[in-house]
Every structure is written in structure tokens, then in C-alpha cells.
Amino acid sequence: MPALRSDHVEVYVFRRRGRRVEFLVLRRARGRLAGVWQPVTGTRERREAAFAAARREVREESGLAPKRWWRLEDVLVFFDPESDALQCVPRFAAEIAASDRVRLSREHDAHAFLAAAAAGRRFLWRSQRRALVAVREQILAGGATARALAIATRRT
């Protein structure tokens, strides 16, 4: 039986422009998945908490400092043949201000802000398209679920 690991995080960054919600999508510049569009993704550092990794990855990959954060109710589980392990990936949603500007790292060569359906069409993985639906249902719909999934943060 493969081991269970939690080495990665995913973050679905969005902004509100009036009634319209736009999601940040990033295009990988190099490596095995060059040219693939994705949300913010990254690897946790040794002994790094998942939420700390999510904040760091958003800052490193986009230069953004979201004003609000939520965890998503479900995690992604997939088999990683390189490590012969099941990966358990915590997922987060993060809201930025409409006026915030992206500063890409060398890991990505393009970005766009798109409605959920358009963002989903760019994603390679069905699990990422399902996560966009989860953000809409769990976070953007508001209510008790969104409040329960909110992550309290200190302004730094």
C-alpha cells in the first residue's frame, strides 16, 4: 500500500469586479507541464504548515497578498508514481482586491483573470475544474459554510 503524503497545496485566487468574479490562472513556463494553465500550486517546505505554504506560494508565484482566505471543504487525493505515494493536497481560496497587480515568478510566463467557466476550460485537470465549482458553492455563495471555512489572518 502506498504511503500518504501531504507535500503540496493549491490556491484558487479570485477578485470581484462588481458582480463579476474572476479567477487567476497561471501558465507554466518550463518543466514537465510547460504550457499548462493552473491555479497557484506549490510544494510545502519541511515542517511548513499547509496554510503557511499557501500564503508563501501565492506571494512567490504572483506577488499578491490576499485580503481574505478560506480552506475548501475537500482535499485532492492523487497517486504520485515518482514517490509511490498518495498525495493529499489541501486546497484554499483567496480573495484579492480588484486593483491588485500580478508579478509573475519565472515559474510562469503568462496569467489571466477569467470567469470560472473560462478558467476551467484552460485547466488540464478535471479536479481543478471541480475546485472552481467548490469555490463558487462553498465560498462565493456566502452563508454559514463560507463563514465556517474562513481562515482568520493577521495583517502583516
Automatic annotation (TrEMBL):
It comes from the Bacteria. Residues 4-128 form the Nudix hydrolase domain. GO terms for molecular function: hydrolase activity. The keyword Isomerase does not apply. Pfam families: NUDIX (PF00293). Keywords: Hydrolase. This is NUDIX domain-containing protein. It comes from Eiseniibacteriota bacterium. SUPFAM superfamilies: Nudix.
